[in-house]
Amino acid sequence: MPWVQIRLNSNDKHAENIGEVLEQLGSVSVTFVDSQDTPVFEPLPGETRLWGNTDVIALFDAETDMQHIVAELTAQHILSCDVSYKIEQIEDKDWEREWMENFHPMQFGKRLWICPSWRPVPDESAVNVMLDPGLAFGTGTHPTTALCLKWLDGLDLAGKTVIDFGCGSGILAIAALKLGAKQAIGIDIDPQAILASRDNAERNGVAERLQLFLAKDQPQDLQADVVVANILAGPLKELAAPIIALLKPNADLGLSGILANQASSVCEAYQSKVRLEPITEQDEWCRITGVRF
């Protein structure tokens, strides 16, 4: 089905209201996009956090009378000298199939491969994680996930318990298990992440060694030999105390989802309890690692 979209340049004060109006006018989806490509901190549970300068993008059926939409937005005083807009035709594509065709097996470190189930495994003797995450969760293609996978590949995980804090697709927890960890625990605030992690664990034959918890339901005394958290700099700083509490003495910590220019402030939140190691960078993103005192 072909589509047409309208993009309105707004700000964090008005974006949500504009989005609600566009939905009332028949939009099938509304997306908020940072119009200045500014890094965004992941919102905490129950919080909606928008950017300082925000584009609101609404998708409509191609048969929609967009002049009527513009007239309604003008009548409701949304379009003004402070809000510009652009209407664009969107090419009709099978987006899921296109994404699948572009997702290839990828190697991380010396032993680990992340492989989509619809493609042949390049090396049967390697540690292969079969991943069908859908479009919403991590696949290893982003530098932050790649940094974490390479780090896990370099650890001796034999007999250890690993916590994946903010597990998403479960890619890091599952990789840890296939790299030799005795047990892994995935924690996330999103129920869909728990479902995706469970499905991927079953596909990889490690479900019996993976425990999954919503953050609000995790055990109070939970601790592990290795903790990896690939979220974003804001939550990593705000949640430093509970993340540190997950570390056993001498446990390894890996943090990512951090832009290089944010690294120093994240380090400050952990350095009193964690002996930090040199920062590793990849494509403007970085990984912070260390060992619990």
From TrEMBL:
Going by the UniProt record, its keywords in alphabetical order are: Cytoplasm, Methyltransferase, Ribonucleoprotein, Ribosomal protein, S-adenosyl-L-methionine, Transferase
Lineage top rank: taxon:
Bacteria
* Assigned EC number: 2.1.1.-
Give residues annotated as binding S-adenosyl-L-methionine: T145, G166, D188, N230
The record's subcellular location field reads: Cytoplasm
Q: Name one GO molecular function term.
A: protein-lysine N-methyltransferase activity
Q: Which reaction does it catalyse?
A: L-lysyl-[protein] + 3 S-adenosyl-L-methionine = N(6),N(6),N(6)-trimethyl-L-lysyl-[protein] + 3 S-adenosyl-L-homocysteine + 3 H(+)
One short Pfam name that applies is PrmA
List the GO terms this entry assigns under cellular component, sorted alphabetically: cytosol; ribosome
The record ties this protein, via InterPro entries, to: Ribosomal_L11_MeTrfase_PrmA, Ribosomal_PrmA_MeTrfase, SAM-dependent_MTases_sf
One GO BP annotation here? methylation
Would the keyword Cytoplasm turn up in this protein's UniProt record?
Answer: yes
Presence of keyword Ribonucleoprotein: yes
Q: Which HAMAP family match?
A: Methyltr_PrmA
As for what it does, the entry says: Methylates ribosomal protein L11.
Family per UniProt?
Answer: Belongs to the methyltransferase superfamily. PrmA family.
Q: What is this protein called?
A: Ribosomal protein L11 methyltransferase
Tell me which species this is from.
Answer: Chelonobacter oris
